[in-house]
Structures are given as C-alpha cells and as structure tokens.
Amino acid sequence: MPSQKIIIDTDPGQDDAIAILLALASEEVDLLGIVTVAGNVPLELTSRNALMLCELAKKPETKVFAGCSRPLVRPLITAEHVHGKTGLDGADLPEPRISLQTQHGVDWTIETLLAAEDNSVTICCLAPLTNVGMAIVKAPEILPKIKNIVLMGGGFFEGGNITPTSEFNIYVDPHAANTVMKCGRPLVIMPLDVTHKALMQRKWLDALRALKTPVGKATYGMLSFYERFDVEKYGSSGGPLHDPTVIAYLLKPELFEGRQVNVEVEINSELTMGMTSVDWWKVTDRAPNATYMNQINADGFFALILDRLSHL
Ligand code: RIB
Ligand code: CA
What we know:
This protein is of the alpha/beta class and 312 residues long. The protein has a single domain (4-309), classed as Alpha-Beta Complex (Inosine-uridine Nucleoside N-ribohydrolase, Chain A). Helix content is 37%, strand content 17%. The strands form two sheets. The chain has an eight-stranded mixed beta sheet, with helices on both faces. A two-stranded antiparallel ribbon has the order 8-9. Helix 1 (14-24) packs antiparallel against helix 10 and helix 9 packs antiparallel against helix 10. The longest helix has 21 residues, at 214-234. The structure holds alpha-D-ribofuranose and calcium ion. Calcium ion (CA) binds next to loops.
C-alpha cells in the first residue's frame, strides 16, 4: 500500500514523543515534516524536544519547523506540572546537534499543501491546534489538499483534564480548535474517552527498558516520569498514552471504534471554555463533522508501539 503523506503538529511532551517515534519507525507513513507549537511547554522547548527525538530515532534528516508561540486569541497555558520543566523530563537526552528549518511552520504547511495533490495529505495534530487553525485562516485554499485531520483532543463522557469540562489541547486554543472543527475536511478525533482506555502498564514499560537500546532507555525514563501525574490524580494503574493513538490509527485503524457525530467547541463561556460539545445521541440537527473514537484495543495498541520502537 503506498505510504500515507503526513504532517505532524506537536508540542513534545512525553506522549507526543512516543507518537513521533512511532511515525519515524513506520514505513506506512511518509513524514513530510514536523511542526512544533507552544503547548505542554513553550515553543522553544517543544522545538528543541522535537529535534532531540529525531536524533534519538537516528533520523536527523527529518525536517522540523517551529510554528506559533501562543494561541490565536487567549494567553498561553502550559503543562509543566505534567511534563516537567523541559517538557521531556525523564528522557535524559543530549542537546540536539541538528537545527530547525528557517521557514515558519505555518508557512511551510501552507506551501507544502498547496504543492500537493487534492486529498493527499493527512495532518496529525498532537497539540493545541494553533498552527492548523492559523494555516486555514491564512490560506483556506489548502483545504482541498487535506485528505483528513486526525487529532488528539476533547472529551465528553470523561469530562476534561485541565478544567472540569475541557481537555488540554482544545482548552489552550479553543478558537483554533473551533476553526478546525468547522473546516469541512474529514476529522478523526481521539478524545480522552478513548485515550483514558489506553493506560500504560508497568509490564509494558519494563519491556521498553528490556529493549536495551537508546530508544528503550529514553522512552522508559520519560514515560515513568510522565505517568506519575495521572496515576496520582486518577488513582489508576497506569497513565494514559494520548498522542500515539493518532499515529496508531493511521497504521492500524482497526484498533479503534467510534461514531460519526457533530462536535463543536465552546468559545464564549469562561466556565466551559474549550469544552467539546459532542452530539453522541443525535439530539440536534447539527451535521456530523467527525469520527469520534471511544473504543480501543489497548493490548494491540501497546503491542504495536513496542514492536515498532524495537526496530529503531
Ligand atoms: O490532554 C492531553 C494532550 O495534551 C496531549 O496531547 C498531551 O501531550 C498534551 O499536549
Ligand atoms: Ca501533545
């Protein structure tokens, strides 16, 4: 099967890191480039982390572009309390030797899409949607080029993880998220309703360490640091591995189940800012705009990641 052309938009972040490594380890995807955004930590750190991960994967030729340093309208909210000061605490990686591309990530995304065939590029969103929202507003003519947008974000049955109602990626830039939800291109959403069913188990983390490779060591360290927050908060057996669900969907869509529904984003009420209003029971006449996933084969998901990372 021809490889899928993808762009990854990301704010590494330990879970973003696993998603990036999974993509770099998988020949089913043709990674055109990585675009970083401010989110888990400020842009300078998410960009540094993305470069470090490309070196860790022994893919120094991967193009990394810095995108937006703050949301479209609201002030930046970061998540050092989850990811640590560097955004990749626990990884213990050397300073990157490779450098960022000089072009702005939003401009590169626009240029790349305009040069592509219609319906040919998948945008994988692992972070606040600022870059993608900005690209759509700046150059709406890119829309026919986008095959689909697969994004980690939102929540409904699970509620929120940064406020009682809202998930972090959507909450940080609800205006960008609203633009993406209404863009008219096929959307696949991996919300907390599915990622909270993908909890890391100690046995799996130990299997990463048992790879006895630089990737195994770094991922064991970063994920052991990262999961502590959710284990403590939810009292769960392990932390949720959010962002790799996006890449896993491209590799093995059969791992997931969901429903075509309408999803809209709250951008007015401060109380519910960034909430994803999901018409799961079709109680409105709002047209379905997304495949909203709520089931995952977790064993298959973790086996896929371990297998692919073992080849890096
Ligand atoms: O709510 C989880 C999301 O927010 C993930 O993408 C995580 O990396 C953070 O960006
Ligand atoms: Ca992320």
